Amino acid sequence: MTIENFNFAGKKAIVRVDFNVPLNENGEITDDTRIRGALPTLKKIIADGGAVIIMSHMGKPKGKVNPKLSLGQIKDAVTDALGVPVTFAPDCAKAAEAAAELKMGEALLLENLRYYPEEEGKPVGIDKEDPVYDEAKKAMKESQKEFAKTLASYADCYVMDAFGTAHRKHASTAVIADYFDADNKMLGYLMEKEVAAVDAVLGNIKRPFIAIMGGSKVSSKIGIIENLLGKVDKIILCGGMTYTFAKAHGGNVGKSICEIDKLDVALGVEELAKKNGVELVLAPDAIIGDDFSNDANQKVAPATDIPEGWEGLDAGPEAQKKFAEAIKGCKTILWNGPAGVFEFDNFCAGSRAIGNAIAEATAEGAFSLIGGGDSVACVNKFGLADKVSYISTGGGALLEAIEGKILPGIAAIKG
Ligand code: AMP
After folding, report:
1. What is the model's pTM?
2. Residues 145-159: pLDDT tens digits?
3. 215 lines ligand 1 (CB under 6 A)
């Protein structure tokens, strides 16, 4: 079933959205992109004459109630965005009555799904090495089914629209789909859009294809980097990863972020790039600071020769030039992860140079896909959001989809 063809009139739809929005210390939303992203789906249900039960996680409460991560904090914002009355159910697993009372044209917002360990389906507080872990996991999988069944019982149909968590086989993103027949479950508009963007990249790769991978660590991205090395023509590895590569070549990296136990991984990446004929672009120089702060003293140094007491916080001017040259003329561009500590205005030049080069290549006809919270924040910070082809709401989900993995949240609907 597709959302476009489904008539929600007189139906209650339970919709998994990703309302894991950033909040400040006063519980105010600092970026409502994710709420806006889900609106087309939610509004279609209401406009058809249906009622909507909205469910999401927020943060990582690890199976426990944590008022700082309560979705109650965003109820007013959801009400304003939807323009219909929204009731809040303070316990997502005990919302049967509220769901039954829900009137057509109205919405019910459930409390954070991850207050229950059943949502993620992993035993809490038991170490993976513990001999009882496997038993506990099996039991948890059973209670996860019960939890999903309870959520399903609130509604007539199910819509999956949380791309950000579609790579997780959680109760609300996948297991719940088992309790609806094929005619009563579907992907939402946001999911459809995200899937189409990934298909645009993978289905018809226009070359040269470049991936720009940044962020803090090589270890958290090694799987996708190795995978991309089988697909791309060029890859830029930047951000904190720079210094693991520099160290692997015997360089001095001062107090830069560096994964000392991943030097062989870095060398392995270089070898694989060579074997696959992929041009690997690393930063030759860095903007270094004497403190991890925006106001640190700064100077430029070779990425492999950073003095003691200093750390690489951004790509240097040579690196910025090299990155821009590598991006110029590419026809398919994937960007995930900043080139430096872009949150500090004094150390965001490298990320800005990448953003500008992507915008220029896009103007010349490239398809550019930006994914992962930090790169999206970069693009927004530099005012480039309308100069790139597509901004994904997914980080991990986007990368897994690009890897060619079938996301559980999609498989649960499409089989
Ligand atoms: P990730 O979550 O791995 O994508 O990393 C994103 C974070 O990496 C951002 O918050 C950046 O501030 C940080 N980052 C990028 N470059 C560096 C660097 N050279 N040193 C420390 N952190 C960095």
Report:
1. 0.87
2. 999 999 999 999 999
3. yes
